[in-house]
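Hey, quick one: can you model this chain's 3D structure?
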Amino acid sequence: MFVYKNLYSTFSFVFLVIFVTVYSQSLFAETSTTNEHISFTKPWIRLLPPTVTNTAGYVAINNSSNQADELLAIWSPTINSMSVHQTKQVDGLLKMLKAENTTIPAKGQLVMQPGGYHMMLMGLEKPLIENDTILIYFEFERAGIVHVSFPIIRK
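Sure thing. Here's the predicted structure for all 155 residues.
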């Protein structure tokens, strides 16, 4: 009986180690800061007064692949709602509208900058602090989920 009990304990321990190793690798494989074809240039979030609960974020998303990739979603654990908007002229007025097309072309980029495409960060849970960072997740149709740290900058 003693041999079976030790064998069972050893088997349970080995199974647990293998399970934790495989499961943790799959968790970390879901998101990354880099991707074979998608990269990010000059990410930043605009610092606004502490009473303002919405702001904008900017970045250039580069696609080195031979195929276009669609940006499906963006989110952050510290922001209630995020979406990509585009500033457009409508009936002679500049309007900020939800972006209709967030495809990063093959061998191209989607540039988010003031006055054009940009990320709207709505419902900030706490005031932003200059030079802090916010982790933002990007989900792409082909590239999967990639996360990027955005510095908060006064401009």
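One thing worth noting: The chain is about 20% helix and 50% strand.
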